[in-house]
Specification:
Elements: H1 2-20, E1 28-35, H2 40-54, E2 58-65, H3 67-79, E3 86-90, H4 94-99, H5 107-111, H6 122-125, E4 129-130, E5 133-134, E6 137-143, E7 145-149, H7 150-156, H8 167-176, H9 203-209, H10 228-242, H11 248-254, E8 266-269, H12 274-279, E9 284-287, E10 291-292, E11 295-296, E12 298-307, H13 314-324, H14 327-334, E13 340-341, H15 344-347, H16 350-353, H17 362-366, E14 371-373, H18 380-395, H19 401-418
Parallel strand pairs: 1-2, 1-3, 12-14
Antiparallel strand pairs: 3-12, 4-5, 6-12, 6-13, 7-8, 7-9, 10-11
Helix pairs in contact: 9-10, 18-19
């Protein structure tokens, strides 16, 4: 009887213990897909590892591809019904993806985390906000500044660019720094090189600084040919006509970045170029974009996070995004050196401002004061192609600016009309 009683007591205790034991949390794996350089995977893996330590039941699989391969692969996965849970988004393309119904509305998650967006630079958030909430969030951002090769300026006896520079100063310096070093009749060093196919690196900044606009507020009219915008285009064309900026065709013959290959004394670009310039051994620094007739202007653009509407692990996906946008995540991402953190507390700290080297990181932050957000609208990719491809013959010297611009605007407006 005593043995039976003892057995019943032990069984009762075991049953009680089992009843009180917490159920094991389900393990979840999510996928995160992005574009970037191969070396970015190391830092992103560190972010993922940090996240996993804090969230041991969530595993994140990271996939990094180059820009072109990324979009091809992403479209294939979505068409096949197997989208990544989280994927990277270029802000100007956001509305095209959101309007396709491919993205999850993140507003319920944001509402459940009061104050979550308080520390963000507000300019980085506008691209992802819609009438019914945020369908994406910025991961990091770029402000466009003027890079210059200090050795080339020193050799030519030219003063370094300053915050007081105007676009006329830029043109004068570019002429002085354009050289035929061996006297063979071919330019060996250009004063400036930049991309004028897309708006981000130069022509949007020039148009805004001249007092023009890119597109109407309702996204129905292309304004790049209105009033002072034409003066900005004439200025850009003058750099090509001077010979101080290589034509698009010439640039293509030499490679994608003539500043990095030490064939140009200046360029206008974002922070993403810094690691490559350091690796190339350039002695360089940065200055704000020049002042135009109506003041200074630059462009702000961001890369963002979005979640697939068809994700089966949306809670885990947002948990990962939330971590990557925390101070811990943003500090880790700053190690990449490719961009500016979206959190003010990180961007304005020594983590960003005192990165290794002598580059004046403050210039990137100071430029936010006169920055315009790169336009975000439906049909952006097709619109940008029409403008970029349409004006390339002008800059190659094969077409006149005025009539070509008129035709480009007609085609660009047709694209806007088709995307209303």
């Amino acid at each position: 009887m005593k043995k039976l009683l003892f057995a019943l007591v032990v069984a009762s205790m075991l049953f009680t213990a089992c009843a009180k034991a917490p159920a094991a949390q389900k393990s979840t794996e999510i996928s995160f897909m992005m574009w970037g350089a191969p070396e970015e995977l190391t830092v992103w893996q560190a972010v993922v590892d940090d996240f996993h330590k804090a969230n041991p039941n969530i595993t994140v699989k990271v996939d990094v591809s180059d820009w072109d391969s990324y979009w091809t692969k992403l479209n294939t996965l979505i068409a096949g019904g197997t989208p990544p849970d989280v994927f990277a988004m270029d802000a100007p393309l956001f509305l095209d993806w959101q309007s396709r119904g491919a993205l999850l509305n993140l507003q319920p998650y944001i509402d459940a985390n009061p104050g979550f967006l308080d520390g963000f630079y507000p300019q980085t958030l506008t691209a992802y906000k819609t009438a019914d909430g945020y369908y994406g969030l910025p991961r990091d951002f770029q402000s466009i500044v003027l890079f210059y090769n200090k050795d080339m300026f020193d050799t030519a006896g030219q003063a370094y660019p300053s915050a007081d520079w105007t676009y006329d100063d830029l043109r004068t310096a570019a002429k002085a720094l354009t050289l035929d070093k061996d006297g063979d009749g071919k330019t060996d060093q250009y004063g400036i090189w930049t991309d004028t196919w897309d708006m981000e690196l130069f022509w949007s900044e020039a148009i805004w600084a001249y007092g023009g606009e890119i597109i109407s507020a309702d996204h129905t009219k292309t304004l790049i040919g209105k009033g002072p915008a034409r003066d900005a285009w004439a200025y850009i064309d003058s750099l090509y006509k001077d010979g101080s900026m290589p034509t698009p065709t010439t640039s293509g013959e030499y490679g994608s970045d003539l500043f990095q290959s030490k064939m140009a004394a200046m360029t206008t670009i974002g922070h993403w170029a810094v690691p490559g310039y350091v690796q190339a051994g350039l002695n360089f620094d940065v200055a704000p974009m020049p002042t135009g007739p109506t003041g200074k202007a630059t462009s702000v653009n961001s890369a963002g996070f979005v979640v697939s509407k068809d994700s089966k692990n949306a809670d885990a996906a947002f948990a990962f995004i939330k971590f990557a946008l925390s101070e811990a995540g943003q500090k880790r991402l700053t190690e990449l050196g490719f961009a500016i953190p979206v959190l003010k507390s990180v961007a304005e700290s020594d983590v960003f401002l005192k990165q290794s080297g002598t580059l004046n990181q403050q210039v990137f932050l100071d430029s936010i004061a006169f920055a315009h957000t790169k336009p975000v609208f439906k049909g952006y990719e097709e619109w940008a192609g029409v403008v970029g491809d349409g004006l390339t013959p002008v800059f190659d010297g094969d077409a006149e600016l005025g009539p070509t611009l008129d035709e480009v605007i007609k085609s660009a407006d047709a694209i806007l009309a088709n995307n209303q």
